[in-house]
Design brief:
Number of strands: 10
Largest sheet: 7 strands, mixed
Shape: globular
Radius of gyration: 19 Å
Order of helices and strands: HEEHEHEEEEEEE
Distance between the termini: 45 Å
Number of helices: 3
Strand content: 25-35%
Oligomer: single chain
Length: 230
């Protein structure tokens, strides 16, 4: 049976959360925010806690887990009701620590050191499709990553099926030790423009200006990305 994070770790994060937001965290240590940006662009951000499982060196570490209860609670608190997804809605972003797709090009099979995607990655992906999330941001592997994913909304591909398209971006790392990255640390910026969100990654240099790593434009749409399969 999976063990949750020890009480001491939860209390430490709880203190940090209260110092930052002047609020008590919920039982999942997750959060959500709504923003109305310039040009009347509505944005909803949900931060999921994928670090619920206690990590123990030598036999279990690196895996993430979100859990159905946390996903259900996040959707309820944000008012994400699936039957209304065809209506105009804000641009939706989900942020979590662990990745949902393979990021590392090739992993070495070290015993007792199993890095991988979140244990319930597929459950989170289906939740993302169900609630028409537009952009997923993650970290964990200290490596930049980009994928555009299309999934059938009802899980059944075929003629006439409707698909939801979203982006998954790994934001690298802004402060990891040099032996965890081949190149410089990087920082990411989201810039909301008229019809898209520009995600820019740049290097963090000890001396001198930053250099661009890459950038991508994610369409900013007011309605669900539901496209028929022709």
């Amino acid at each position: 049976m999976m063990q949750s994070r020890p009480k001491k770790s939860r209390e430490a994060f709880g203190n940090f959360y209260r110092d930052l937001f002047y609020l008590n965290p919920n039982e999942y240590l997750s959060s959500g925010r709504r923003y109305l940006l310039g040009g009347a662009v509505p944005v909803e951000v949900v931060c999921l806690n994928s670090s619920l499982i206690e990590q123990k060196k030598g036999w279990f570490q690196g895996h993430g887990f979100v859990g159905k209860a946390q996903l259900d609670d996040a959707a309820k608190q944000m008012g994400w009701i699936p039957p209304a997804q065809h209506l105009a809605r804000p641009f939706r972003i989900v942020v979590l620590h662990h990745h949902l797709l393979p990021v590392t090009y090739r992993e070495e099979p070290y015993g007792g050191y199993p890095y991988s995607v979140a244990l319930d990655a597929e459950a989170v992906m289906q939740w993302v499709v169900e609630h028409r999330v537009d952009l997923v941001l993650h970290g964990h592997m200290h490596k930049e990553f980009c994928a555009r994913v299309s999934r059938p909304i009802d899980g059944k591909p075929g003629d006439g099926a409707k698909w939801h398209t979203f982006h998954i971006l790994g934001m690298g790392s802004s402060g990891v030790a040099k032996d965890h990255r081949e190149n410089s640390n990087i920082a990411g910026f989201l810039r909301f423009e008229r019809d898209h969100v520009k995600v820019q990654l740049v290097t963090i240099e000890p001396v001198g200006p930053s250099s661009p790593v890459w950038e991508i434009k994610v369409p900013l749409r007011s309605k669900s990305h539901e496209t028929p399969d022709n």
